[in-house]
Write a structure and sequence with these properties.
This protein is an alpha/beta fold. It is built from ten helices and eleven strands. The protein binds guanine (GUN).
């Protein structure tokens, strides 16, 4: 079994980005600039956004963090988005999700300029992904594709089962894996909460991508011997023996599943850190006006 080291791979990618930024700056080109809007004080969102800002420093990007109160109106947020859309110094930006309940998330996503939508959430960018046109691929699926590539996990003609159909991970992941490209060319089955006999599907899988958001959901009896398993879950499970009062657990029951597989990502330290590297890559593309 090979343990896929997302932390190491992410840092390698970030080093490559940092080199490119140095090069750009030495040529007198613009320093890439990522902005993030954080509305409210959800602890997990705060942690994610802080990591994204820190990563910008590491690779030599400029970053701007816009913090807004939880009671911010939808109108105020739309005004801020308009400001970022027209600020030429900002190459790309994200609005951290989830947003407070009184704000219409879809309306917000659709107000982001597609050319600055480095999360790849805007319908224009999702459409471009489906049509195999240059686009920003949302960060988590893009990070997973990088991991498969770096670990040379074969995909062509393989059967990939994606569990979960969220807009952020499951749906774009299923599209990427089915694409007629080197990384892809899989037969893809997209499973979700209404799938009947889930185990019958997962047992056929050469690659399982678990993105259902339920702790320890994928158990050893659901996995074929020698499969590659990618765990997207980051679930906080109460644990009073830890200083924080919780531990992070994936969607895969790691202890038992790891004994059967050829490759597996740990939680933490697997897919999570890759999300950040992918976001930086998208921002670099934005600053070079590649999309
Ligand atoms: N919330 C969870 N994942 C993400 C992400 O990749 N981007 C944004 N904007 N919000 C998220």
């Amino acid at each position: 079994m090979i343990l896929i080291d997302g932390k190491k791979t992410s840092l390698e990618l970030q080093e490559e980005i940092a080199k490119e930024v140095k090069q750009l700056i030495s040529e007198g080109k613009k320093q890439p600039h990522l902005a993030a809007i954080l509305v409210g004080d959800d602890p997990a969102s705060q942690t994610y956004v802080t990591s994204k800002v820190k990563a910008c420093d590491r690779v030599g990007f400029k970053s701007t963090l816009v913090k807004m109160e939880a009671y911010t109106s939808e109108q105020k947020l739309l005004e801020k988005i308009k400001e970022l859309n027209s600020n030429d110094d900002i190459d790309g930006y994200i609005v951290q999700l989830p947003l407070p309940k009184h704000i219409n998330e879809q309306k917000i996503i659709e107000s982001i300029s597609p050319s600055k939508d480095v999360d790849g959430f805007h319908p224009v960018n999702v459409g471009r992904l489906v049509l195999n046109l240059p686009t920003y691929v949302s960060a988590t699926p893009y990070g997973i594709v990088h991991l498969l590539e770096r670990y040379q996990i074969p995909t062509e003609g393989k059967h990939c089962v994606v569990i979960g159909r969220s807009h952020i991970v499951g749906s774009p992941m299923s599209i990427l894996m089915a694409k007629n490209t080197n990384l892809g060319n899989c037969t893809v089955t997209l499973c979700h909460s209404k799938t009947k006999n889930l185990k019958e599907h997962t047992l056929q899988a050469d690659i399982i991508i678990a993105a259902i958001g339920r702790p320890n959901f994928v158990t050893a009896d659901m996995v074929k011997q020698g499969a590659a398993v990618i765990d997207v879950g980051i679930n906080r499970v109460e644990d009073n023996t830890t200083p924080k009062g919780y531990q992070l657990v994936g969607d895969v029951k790691f202890d038992e599943v790891s004994k059967k597989v050829s490759y597996i990502t740990p939680v933490p330290g697997g897919v999570g850190p890759m999300t950040i590297a992918s976001l930086l890559q998208n921002t670099l593309k934005a600053s070079k006006k590649e999309i």
